[in-house]
Amino acid sequence: MIASLRGTVLSISLDHAVIECAGVGYKFLATPVTLGTLHRGDEATVLTSMVVKEDSMTLYGFSNDEDREMFHVLQTVSGLGPKLALAALSVMGASQLAQAISSGDAKTLQTIPGVGKRMAERLALELRDKVSAFAPQAQPGQEASAAVAHGPVVDQVVEALVGLGFTDKAARPVVEGIVAEEPAAETAVVLRGALAQLGRKK
C-alpha cells in the first residue's frame, strides 16, 4: 500500500500528475483542487490511496486526509467505485458532500457526473450516519464572515489555475465572475466552474 508520495513534481495535467520519488515517477489521479496545489519542479507531498484490480493498479492523490477518508467512505456504497468517488470530490469538498448526504439533498448530489436519482438516494440512505464527522459545525457570525472570505477564494482558485497552465490575466476575470454569481460557493466548486469556462475558450 502506497500511502503518500514525496518528491519532485514532474508533470501536471487536468486529471493527474506525476511525482518522482527516488528516481521513480508515480502517476496519480486527483481532483482539480489537489492538482492546483502542485507546481512543476517543486517538491511536494501528496496523500494517496492505491486501488488494485485484476488488470490495474491506480493511485489516487489528495492534498488532505479529510478528502482521502471521504474517498474511502464513498466507496462503501454499492455500485460506487473510485472514479465516481473522485468525481464527487471534484465537484464538492468533503464537508459539502457530508452536508448534502446528511440532509438527504438528492438534487445537489445529482450534480456529480455519473450520479443519478437512485444513486443520490442510496448515498443519502447508506452514508448518513457515516459522514457526520465531516460536516463542519456552524459558528456564530458565519454568514457575516462569508463575504470576507471571497478575496482569498479568488486568489486560491486563480493560483490553482495558474499552476495548471492558465495565465492570471485569463483566469482572474472568470473566477471573479463565478464568485460574484455564487458568493457562498466553496473553492472546489469555483475551480470546477472556472475550468469548464476556460476549457470552452480554448
TrEMBL record:
Superkingdom to which the source organism belongs: Bacteria
Q: Which residues form the Helix-hairpin-helix DNA-binding motif class domain?
A: 72-91, 107-126
Q: Where is the signal peptide?
A: none
UniProt-annotated stretches for the region Domain III: 149-202
The principal location of this protein is: cytoplasm
Keyword list, A-Z: Cytoplasm, DNA damage, DNA recombination, DNA repair, DNA-binding
Q: Which InterPro entries match?
A: DNA_helicase_Holl-junc_RuvA_I, Hlx-hairpin-Hlx_DNA-bd_motif, NA-bd_OB-fold, RuvA, RuvA_2-like, RuvA_C, RuvA_C_sf
Give a yes or no for keyword Ribosomal protein in this entry. Answer: no
| Family annotation (Pfam families) | HHH_5, RuvA_C, RuvA_N
What are the subcellular locations of this protein? Cytoplasm
Assembly information from the UniProt record: Homotetramer. Forms an RuvA(8)-RuvB(12)-Holliday junction (HJ) complex. HJ DNA is sandwiched between 2 RuvA tetramers; dsDNA enters through RuvA and exits via RuvB. An RuvB hexamer assembles on each DNA strand where it exits the tetramer. Each RuvB hexamer is contacted by two RuvA subunits (via domain III) on 2 adjacent RuvB subunits; this complex drives branch migration. In the full resolvosome a probable DNA-RuvA(4)-RuvB(12)-RuvC(2) complex forms which resolves the HJ.
Q: Name the NCBIfam families on file.
A: ruvA (TIGR00084)
What is the documented function of this protein? The RuvA-RuvB-RuvC complex processes Holliday junction (HJ) DNA during genetic recombination and DNA repair, while the RuvA-RuvB complex plays an important role in the rescue of blocked DNA replication forks via replication fork reversal (RFR). RuvA specifically binds to HJ cruciform DNA, conferring on it an open structure. The RuvB hexamer acts as an ATP-dependent pump, pulling dsDNA into and through the RuvAB complex. HJ branch migration allows RuvC to scan DNA until it finds its consensus sequence, where it cleaves and resolves the cruciform DNA.
Domain comment quoted from the record: Has three domains with a flexible linker between the domains II and III and assumes an 'L' shape. Domain III is highly mobile and contacts RuvB.
The record's comment on protein family reads: Belongs to the RuvA family.
Q: What is this protein called?
A: Holliday junction branch migration complex subunit RuvA
Originating species: Corynebacterium striatum
Q: What is the lineage of its organism?
A: Bacteria, Bacillati, Actinomycetota, Actinomycetes, Mycobacteriales
